[in-house]
Amino acid sequence: MQLSPDETVVFTLGGFSVNATIAGTWAIMVLLTGVSALITRNLRADVPPSRWRTALEVIVTVINGQIAEITQRRDSRVLYFAGTLFLFIITANLLTVVPGFEPPTASLSTTAALALSVLIAVPLFGIGSRGLGGYLKTYVEPSPIMLPFNIIGEVSRGVSLAIRLYGNIMSGAVIAAILLGVAPFFFPVVMDMLGLLTGVIQAYIFAILATVYIASATAEPPPSTTRKDAP
């Protein structure tokens, strides 16, 4: 039993072996880009929206609303980043119902890459909002002795994101494979349904945590108060 799609070689391109993780990632990118382009091809004010366009607008509106609740403001940059993470992960997890498709999120390399993108995005958003000096100052708050602990906490965020997503997707695949040998007709259907639910929840949690980290890095520092001695 293969535990990771990294072990499955789909084809060879120029002497480079393309495994199921890379092929699945490319397929999801093409699918999301193609569907978005198809739905928004007549994006004009004089053209009435189709059902697919309405559904897409509802998804974007819901994501934007969740981001606004967390960051207390509407920021299109956070929408682009967190929304892309959510759509990629949820599409990868939902496509597990397709026979023969191995979700790239079941590979630690994919989840690590997603977590790394969050680790890079958080300081970029923080620097863009507070400036370089203002963001670096957060690492020595409330005291310079907290510098190593703040750095460790920043790195541990990315590690926890990668391990959480990878562990949930991989464990679901392992349990489904075990139950397939016990009861090949009943349990796989139940596990597929639970796997889809878990995949949706994990996509939501990953995107929400990324938004929370960005909101923490871009939040305005509390106003400093100066003590005034009574006359």
**Which term fits the overall shape?**
globular
Helix % is: 55-70%
| Helix-strand sequence | EEHHHHHHH
Quick one: how many beta strands? Answer: 2
Overall mean pLDDT stands at 79
**Radius of gyration, taken over Cα atoms and rounded to an integer in Å:** 22 Å
Q: How many distinct domains?
A: 1
Q: Unreliable stretches, pLDDT < 50, 5 or more residues? A: 225-231
What fraction of the residues are assigned to beta strands by DSSP? under 5%
Q: Main sheet, how many strands, which sense, barrel?
A: 2 strands, antiparallel
Quickly count the helices. Answer: 7
For the record, give the distance between the C-alpha atoms at the N and C termini, rounded to a whole number: 79 Å
Sheet/helix structural class? mainly alpha
Q: Walk across the major sheet and give the strand order.
A: 1-2
Label this structure with key terms:
231 residues; mainly alpha; 7 helices
What does this entry look like structurally?
By secondary structure, the protein is mostly helical. The chain has one domain. 68% of the residues lie in helices and 4% in strands. The protein contains seven helices and two strands, in the order ββααααααα. A two-stranded antiparallel ribbon has the order 1-2. The longest helix is centred in the last third of the chain and has 36 residues, at 147-182. The protein starts with 8 loop residues before the first strand and ends in a 13-residue tail after the last helix. Residues 225-231 have low confidence and may be disordered.
Summarize the structure.
With 231 residues, this protein is mainly alpha-helical. The chain is built from seven helices and two strands, in the order E-E-H-H-H-H-H-H-H. Helix content is 68%, strand content 4%.
